[in-house]
Amino acid sequence: MYLLIKKFFFVVVLIFMLFDTGNTLAQKVSDPAVIEGVDYFYKAKFPQAIESLRKAISTGKLPGDDVFAAYLYMAFSQMRQNAPQDSVDKNLVAAIKANPNIEIDGTKTPPDLFERFVAVRKSTLGGLLIVTEPGAASAILMKQDGNKVMTRYTPAQFTNLFSGRYELVIAKDGYKPQTALANVRAGRTDTLLVQLRMKGKSIFKKWWAWGSGLAAATAIVVLQKTGKKGEKEGDLPEPPARPKP
Prior knowledge:
Distance between the termini: 121 Å
Oligomer: single chain
Helix content: 40-55%
Number of strands: 7
């Protein structure tokens, strides 16, 4: 029992060492079959690693981090078995889709495995840089199905996005909100410049403010010019009589 616990702890430590702990999403692998597959990989028992990891994936019940690790080590084991590149890349893409924000540590990963992962990741994910005039506007990026992806203040850098069409909503106090459709392309980071327009008062509000001011000024002028002794202060003079025919 002690040896089993020690083995489990050793494998989990290796997994944590491999992944970049600077990411916002920490790597947590808990499924026994995935841990066993990783252990086989580090022992250079690649056929057993592939079998164990494939079995774990086939359950369809793995949490996100376990899915990432299972597909990643499946690809790494295949590379050590000189499997076709298409098969390797398919598993790397599956790992990236499970969690596009996880990166692996290049200082703790064999160079050929690390370089292949980075190459596939770069060719799978894209990004957007949103620049507004004026800046410091809220930029909300959503998939077209309406699911919110993330919010940033401009200039806003959106990274680790899968290719496809996204809806962008930009808002800033005192300016009209703007929407746009952005097409994210894998392997690229495109820049979108948005010119914000200030909110203007409606014509009615402008006329009312101007008109009421004119009316007040006219009343004052009339009082000053036509006010008579005995009239109550603030009363306007009566209109002149209609001329006789």
